[in-house]
Amino acid sequence: MPPKERPQPKKWKPPKGPKPTQRKNKNTIGLGKAIQSARKQENSIEYLPDGEMRFTTEKHEANWVKLRSVTQESALDEFLSTAELANKDFTADRHSNVKIIRMDSNTDARTQAVGMTNAQKELLNAKQREHAKDLIVPRRPYWDEFTTKYELQRQEGEAFLEWRRKLAELQESNEDLLLTPFERNIEVWKQLWRVVERSDLVVQIVDARDPLLFRSVDLERYVKELDERKANLLLVNKADLLTRKQRIVWAKYFVSKGISFTFYSALRANQLLEMENEDAELDKDEIVTIDDEITEGENIDDEIKEKITILSIDELEDLFLSKAPAQPLTEPLPGKEPILQIGLVGYPNVGKSSTINSLVGAKKVSVSSTPGKTKHFQTIMLSDSVMLCDCPGLVFPNFAYNKGELVCNGVLPIDQLRDFVGPSNLVAQRVPKYYLEAVYGIHIQTRTKDEGGDGVTPTGQELLVSYARARGYMTQGFGSADESRASRYILKDYVNGKLLYINPPPHIEDDTPYSIEECKDFNKDLYTFERLPESRKEQIREAAKNKGIEVIDLSRDLNKLTFSAHTGGNDNKEAKSVTHGGKQAALYNAAEDLDNEFFKMNSVEGRLTNPFHKQMGGAAGSKKHNKKNKKGKKKAAMMAD
User: Which of 96, 401, 561, 572 could form a Cys-Cys staple with 543, CB 3.0–4.6 A?
Assistant: First the structure.
């Protein structure tokens, strides 16, 4: 049988229709070329002056990324950054039995929920003073015009790594000491080194509410190590938040310790500038001398009386010039006049940029309430012969009693806060309950002694729950109070000064801290009716007028008044709070509500009743169930006949 013939392949025929035309891409800048160029720069080979070849595959980060503030790192991130600083390489074996345990995930919420006693605080403070000399700032290695860029980078990395190791040893050898989060990015410390090296006068700006927490003693030593002719000055900003008595106590402490200081308020100075620019009629003396009235029986030295004055802008400029060296220490360029340079350093959000704006008289430096707004050090000419240097905010290593202090002092951003229990407990412990109720117009229901509380001082959770229910901040689902949202509002009010608490200085005689009772007495003048916001004062004044109260004492009369969401009570009845957010918003105890509704415990009454089959009496029942009884009755009737 002859084989079958294979079919012939079909001939190609051109498609019908117009021919396709190749169009040129109008986008002349291609994304692919940009990626190739970036990869080429990342994988470039670099030859050092000594002939050594370096090859890296890491991405080159922008300057703003390098200068991001890093105060807290996980265990793994800390290991990687330490390896990078040490210029070490390492490999990971995927088959090895390695287990990474995260030690940073747990917070100290339990420990922060319980306040410290006076004995515990005094014992911990003694140990902090013993190791205060170990809280150092990193030093920049010596360099001159002959030092190359690569040599200086290597020396700076080694010195910074050694500083990190010393602080780690301090923390490991003293587990009961709490070391605050500190700046771990070397690029941010380089900005401080440059400002200190070029400045003739280094002004360390601190918050008046806790000056010792923001003051770095070792930074003053570092300034003197660079040049003995350099001068230090402690500028206590936000001094308008302090009363006259509190400024006197702090001034006596600073004078006894030989600290060069001054009180200043950048906010008040900027307000004066705005009023002057608007050509408004104002009395400068009236604004500047608030809380400066001399009380009866006051006996202070003339030196202290002069020191407690909150300086104006002109007085602060004169003080800078008087404290600085007579001649600038930096040699000017050929053909130019010498310039006196004043450096402003300190923690984030203490008012460095606001102070510069008040001195210059215009908004030259961007200001933000978020810590860490300034990224690079900036220079501003105050006059032809004076230059100001604004350094980025740095968190210096220091000791603290708990981590909530840094949040309450505005060092760490509140919007990035994960654990709100500790800071909220601090606010509830420091600010009296009646003042919190007066400021927010709420009633805080506290636990009784039988439930584990004291009935007077609320916990942070009780404060947040009362605030959230009064404002209607509820979560989804069951509808419990949104404590996280409430904490952000309250903590921001605390940082901004709406809720005030001033830390007293240690005792001058033995440097021991104030007790809890002494701290309350030190701040009692801050929680008066006159310190409330104007709108709240009008509401409370009207409520007191309806009750026939002429002189308002918040601690005594607030429980009787009805205003905002606060419903007053009497001597035998506790005040209540108006809640918004539905039925669940009014619940203070879910278990109690279940008992009342399900078990009816509030309406339980004891009654003597008979069984149901004996309650029928002589009533005729159904044929099925009462047949036997009918027969018995009929038989008994027949026998009777």
Answer: 561
